[in-house]
Every structure is written in structure tokens, then in C-alpha cells.
Amino acid sequence: MSKRIQAAFDRLKQQQRKALIPFITAGDPTPAATVPLLHALVEAGADVLELGVPFSDPMADGPTIQRASERALRLGVSLRSVLAMVAEFRKQDTITPVVLMGYGNPIEAMGWDVFAKRCAEVGVDGVLTVDFPPEESHDAFEHLQRHNIAPIFLLAPTTNEARIEQVAKLARGYVYYVSLKGVTGSGSIDLSAIEEKMPQLRKHIALPIGVGFGIRDAATAKAVAKLCDGVVVGSRIVQEIEDSGVQNVVENVGKLVKELRQAIDKA
Amino acid sequence: MSYNFPDLTGHFGQFGGTYMAETLIPAVAELAEQYLRYQNDVEFKAELAYELKHYVGRPSPIYHAKRLSEHLGGAQIYLKREDLNHTGAHKINSAMGQALLAKRMGKKRVIAETGAGMHGVATATVAARFGMECIVYMGAEDIQRQAPNVFRMKLLGATVVPVESGSKTLKDACNEAIRDWVTNVESTFYIFGTAAGPHPYPMMVRDFQCVIGNEARVQMPEMIGRQPDAVIACVGGGSNAIGLFHPYIEVPDVQIIGVEAGGHGIASGQHAAPLTANAKVGVLHGNKVYLMQDENGQIIETHSISAGLDYPGVGPEHCLLKDIGRAQYVAINDDEAIAAFDALCRFEGIIPALESSHALAHAIKIAPAMGKDKVLLVNLSGRGDKDMNTVARIKGITL
Predict the structure, then answer these.
(1) Residue B242 phi, psi dihedral angles, 5° rounding
(2) Is A166 an interface residue toward B (CB < 8 Å)?
(3) What ipTM goes with this model?
(4) CA atoms of A21 and A49, how far apart (whole Å)
(5) Most exposed: A266, B1, B39, B56, by fewest CB within 10 Å?
(6) How far does the CA of residue A157 sit from the closest CA of chain B (Å)?
């Protein structure tokens, strides 16, 4: 339910803290590792979890997340099995919001009505489909809204004011600002450009604003946290998963996310 | 009947649209706006017409394949000779139009995806012609099977980037080109190779390719006093096909037949024929189309002997033409395409591209049962020089 997202950001606001929003690809490095990884992320201080649904053609992703998707798909991970992972996670954690992030076609194949219903059943709180902009999403969002699942939108440096307004009307939960022109995990982040864009975003968006793409270390996470309400870290964590053996992956990722948490809390 | 697609938001019925990541939405919106502005601009049209005539070599002739027709003993086969264009295929029609638009939009860097390499060569050519930087993305597997075209692109000054992800073919090259565009969106014009992708590409590429059908509509009456009984073209993404078909949509009594790549046969599952195989509707590369995918919505790897047809989707307008019944779509297998390739070489002295050989193969299949007064117009979309290595390998010959 999208209520969990709101509750998480309300708590953070009271505590005057910024959200840490880690991303992992479901099924990477193995399907069995995903639920333990999600718990470890929460344990290390994550406030919202973004769970990537692997897709064969991840056009908006850089090489790190591309490889994660390929690993997961080779192990037979599908949208159905990702939903089952969330159900498993919810047995122990009924508080931390889970957002599914991916591309539209696996959902189209399942049918948005079935998908939204399943999301509500298993405890998914928000859905971000990279390649479904507001213009093409009317039917999809009706189904999500009916089940109280938050549609999460991306905004980009190229997004003009009229579109920000349009997205502000449809968005629920939080808004994800893509910090750079590029794919996930690429380039170097331009803090002054984010700072410059933020007032324009705030003017229209009352929801919390998370910033992601290109945040690779604790220092950057801290600097970005100062400018917005939440920091999304994806490729850096997925890289850690790739570099760790299956044995150590939960421990290593936990350690990395703890460092990010501490840095953000100093912001 | 009044046919007027796409609508203002780029939809062909339920197909098409703008399914892109947010960063690129303003870029495609700007492109749509600029295209609408220049589409009927007198100066733009005059410049395009000049380039098509003096640089590309248009109009392309129509040729009556008499010996082949006599051999088959049925319908007369006519060929629209897009293989005689500069660079050897229809791709230059649209690459030229898009380059002229890029020039007006002040873009100095162009990118493209390519399968068989013909669109890459066309893009590298117009980039050289107008002094633009050119990057072409090409699947690593296609680089192997289309080596001569890779060399041509490099000679023309383009950078060819091998794509190692996924199936290492056209769809992966397309993913990589999109990733480049999202990174360099302000400096870069994406010269898209086929009549698919996000709006306005399916409309814009179609419009530029319609020169094929518009010429044919004038040429056929000049040659035989009437329009053909059927127009036939191969369909990967479907740009040469829509270029021939679109001007004939509202011409009564002209049958429209699109020929997909049947690979090892539809039943084998190893093909690239989403329309013929009744694939489900899905979303890939910016548009909603019939798409080869598994039950979980993952795009499946396709197979065709012809790199240019080896693509899991198809342009949105073909999806609509199938649904409304104005066009029919069939598949031709690898071996049938090779037989047609051989036939055109031997009977007419024309070496066709393997892509175009699919369209020709269907004409060869249906001609014998038709009367000698019937006329089939086949779009010979490209020449086969690039396919020498592939054909030699199939015939067990080392070059």
C-alpha cells in the first residue's frame, strides 16, 4: 500500500533525516539471496527498497545493472517470481515500503489488472516503469490507483516546467529525480545542476523528492542528501553484489549500505 | 475509406505511442515539433528533392523481370529498383531526410543503429555529406556476418561500436543507441533506421520512404497502363514496405503483401515474423507493437538469415494494417529466400539483398498460379553485395 511510503517519509521528517533508498535487481546474484538481501538493506538503515524487475532489454540501464538483469534472467527470474519474493519479505517486515522498478513489457504481458491486484496482495507499495511516461500510462495507473499502489515517476534534467506540473498531478509516494543525462551508473554527478533544478521541482511537487543515478560513494550520497529528501543508490550496490561471492554478498552489501546511511545522517 | 494515421499523439489505433524514459521525452517532443514545422516547408522540400535526385539518384526505375516471369509461367514480376540508389538500398531515402532535419536543428552529431549495415552505411554517408560526427551501433554478431558494410562505414568516417549485450543483433544495437542518445541528448540527432520507435519516427521515416510508392504509382501506369495487382515488400521493422505500401492504401484493387522472415520455419520458433506468428502486443523501443516475447514478457531471440530482418518487433503501422485487414503478412523461410536470391542472379543478372530476397521469394511462390496478365510489383529494397560472405558460407564456399 502506498500508505507505507507516506508513513516512512513522515517518520523521517519528524526525525529530520533523509531517506536512503537502495536498489537491487531481484534474483541477483541468486533468487534465494534476494529476501535476505532486502532484510540486510533494512537492517543497515534503508528506508525504502527499490526492487528491480529484470528485463531482457534494459534500455535505460548502464552495464552494471544490465549484467545483473542478465544474471537474474538466466536463473529464470520473472515478474511472477519477483512478486513471490516480496510476499516472502513481507512475512517478516510489514513496515518498510517496497517499490518495484523496471520496464513496462513484463507487466503488459501479465496484464495491469492482474499485476496491480497481485501487488496489493503481496505488499508492493509503489511501481516505477521507466519506459511508461504519463502520456502512455492512463490505463495502467487506473489499475494501480484502484489497489492503492503508488505510481512513482522519473523526472529528468531535460523535463520542462509544464511536464513537472503534469507529473505532479499523477505522482504518489515520492518522485524520483534523475540526476544526470545518461543511463544508470554512468558519469559524474553535477551537484550544482541538481541544486539549481530543485526549486523548480519543489514549486509543483509536494511529495518527497528522491535523487538518483550516479551516486557512487558516501561523500556523494551525503552531498546529494543535503539537496533533497532521499538518496537512491543502485549501480554501486549492484556492483558490490557482482564483486562479492554468494557467501559474502549479504554481509558486504550490509556494510556498504551502513556506510551510506552514516554519511547521509551527517548531511 | 479514409485512412489517416497516426493521430496527433502518434498512435496507429492501439499501436505506436511514445514509450520512452523521461530524459528523452522532451527530445522526441522537440523532434516531432521540428518535423511538423519542416515537413511542408518549401525550402526543406526543395532541398530534399534536390538531394534525392542528384545525390541518391532518384527516381529509381521499375524493371520488368521478363525472363524470371516467363520461367515461372504466371504473373509478371516487376521490381522497384531501390538497390540502384546511392549506397545500395532504400535506407538512404530516410537517412537523407533525417540528416537535413538534423542540420536545421543544429545537431552536429548523429547516431544510428544498424542490423545488416545498410542503414549504418546510409547514415555514415549523409554524415560525411554534411560534415557531421557519426556513431553507428551494431551487434557483434552482425559485425561478423556483414563485414564489408563495417568497412564501408569506417571508410566514410563513422565510428562503429560493437554491441556485446543480449543477442548481439539489431535489437541490442537499438538499446545501445538509445543509451547513447539519453547521455548526449542535447548534441545528438538519432537517425532511426526503420518506421518504428517512439513518435514521430514511425510517421517521419514512413513519410521519407513514401517516395518509393509515390514514384511507383506514377511509373506503373506509364509502363503497363495501370496499377499492379499486388505490391510486395519484405518487413523487418518495415520501412521499405511502408514506403511502398502507404501510397497504395487507398488505391482500390491493389493487394498489399508484407513478407516477414520465417527463419527455420514458423513452427520451429526460430524466426523473426511477429505478424505471421500472431505474436502478442508488447512495448519495446518506444512503441507498442506486435512483439516476439515469452510468457513473462521478456523479448525472445529471433532468427533470420538476413540481419536486416532479424528483429523481434515490427513498425506500428504494419500492426494496424494487419488488424484492419488492408495488408496481409506472410513469412518466407531462409532456404526459400536463398532460392529466390539464386533465381534473380541467374535469370536477371541482379544480385538482391537477402532481405529483399524474402519479398521476391513470395512473388515467385504465388506467380505460377496467377494469370499471365497479372502484375506483381516487388520492392527490391537493396542489393546483395553485402551478403557475399553469408551466401558463400551457406553454399559451403570459402572466399
Answers:
(1) -65, -30
(2) no
(3) 0.95
(4) 6
(5) B1
(6) 7
Nearest to B22 among A70, A106, A178 (CB): A178
- Residue whose C-alpha cell reads 549484467 in the numeric block: A67
Residue type, B188: T
CB contact under 8 A, B19 and A131: yes
Q: How far apart are the first and last CA of chain A?
A: 29
State the Cα–Cα distance between residues A55 and B18, nearest whole angstrom. Answer: 19
pLDDT tier at A1 (50, 70, 90 boundaries)?
low
The helix or strand, by DSSP H or E, that contains position A240, with its residue range, turns out to be: helix A235-243
- B245 contacts B258 by C-beta, under 8 angstroms: yes
Percent of chain A whose predicted confidence (pLDDT) is above 90: 91
Q: Does B286 touch chain A (CB under 8 A)?
A: yes
Q: Backbone dihedral region of B170: left (phi > 0), alpha (psi from -120 to 50 degrees) or beta?
A: alpha
Q: Are B221 and B247 in contact (CB under 8 A)?
A: no
* CA gap B313, B238 in Å, rounded: 10
Coil, helix or strand for B166?
coil
**Cβ-nearest to A57 among B20, B22, B166:** B166
- Overall domain count for chain A: 1
Angle, alpha carbons A110-A156-A12 (nearest 5°):
80
pLDDT of residue A245: 85
Q: What is the pLDDT of residues A155-185, one digit of tens each?
A: 999 999 999 999 999 999 999 999 888 888 8
Q: Is B103 among the residues known to form the active site? A: no
Q: Which residue has the cell 502486443?
A: B281
Residue A64 belongs to a domain with what CATH number? 3.20.20.70
* H helix runs in B131-195, sequence order: 140-145, 147-155, 170-183
* Cut 0.95: pTM above it: yes
Report angle CA B23, B185, A159 to the nearest 5 degrees. 30
d(C-alpha A166, C-alpha A239), whole Å = 35
- For A141-155, give the DSSP string: HHHHHHTTPEEPEEE
Specify whether B2 is catalytic.
Answer: no
Q: What is the span of the domain harbouring residue A217? A: 3-265
∠ CA A132-A135-A136, nearest 5°, is 50
